Amino acid sequence: MSAEGGTRAIVAALTANIGIAVTKFVAWLLTGSSSMxxxxxxxxxxxxxxxxxxxxGKRSRRQATPEHPFGFGRERYIYAFIVSIILFSVGxxxxxxxxxxxxQHPEPIESWxxxxxxxxxxxxxxxxxxxxxxxxxxxxxxxxxxxxxxxxRAKAPxxxxxxxxxxxxxxxxxxxxxxxxxxxxxDNGVWDGIGTAAIGLLLVTIAVxxxxxxxxxxxxxxxxxxxxxxxxxxxxxxxxxxxIIHMKTLHLGPEELLVAVKxxxxxxxxxxxxxxxxxxxxxxxxxxVPIARVIYIEPDVYRxxxxxxxxxxx
Length: 314
Known about the structure:
By secondary structure, this protein is mainly α. 67% of the residues lie in helices and 9% in strands.
């Protein structure tokens, strides 16, 4: 997934959420609906999250330094993890608290009764636009991968985050519309609280999923099975490489891959010939997998009793 595609999805989501947040706050001030307040806070949290993703993307492009020799690519993962924490605390827990308060002290919507319905319908339209943009950008690289596997295996965090946020926002709007509509029909504010509780549970669930997936990226994930296969083929395609003794890969960032491989070479190789073969192997790896930015190749003589197996594909 290109960083440009992720940025387009983030900007679309940010633009939609800012407009939605303003209209929801106006509707809450006019009606006092807890569902509208929960949704307004949800939109504010989403807007802050998208700003964090943009900041993380910009900071990750800084040049490597002696203190951080492998660069700052993982900053995108750190900011995505912060997003999950904000979504959990500011969005989910606040909505659950507001729902508990509303159910304990239910109040009907007495003024500007149909304003929340109008706002929610407009918000659903804006969120749908953001969601379609995220789907379109994801489809550029998703291929035949299922949506579940795309979210679980994507190395770039922006699109999975926006996809989950937008899907959660759409469902949350449906829950809010459900609660508000039944409150207007029955004059019973408990339905407003129930809709708010559904929003809170939804946001907490999405935040936990995001935290789990981003944690895996922060810990360090290997290259995909397809990239691993291409690297192995590139290494073995050269003359003088007998076999791969073992290989390890690690994502330094979404578009930066570290490759460390120990290869078996003939025992009588001259140093200059060996250096040439290693340089050629590095060039083949970079051609096969362009995101392989940092490559370490160690030559050795194959000894079956001491060799460790190649790292399994993820």
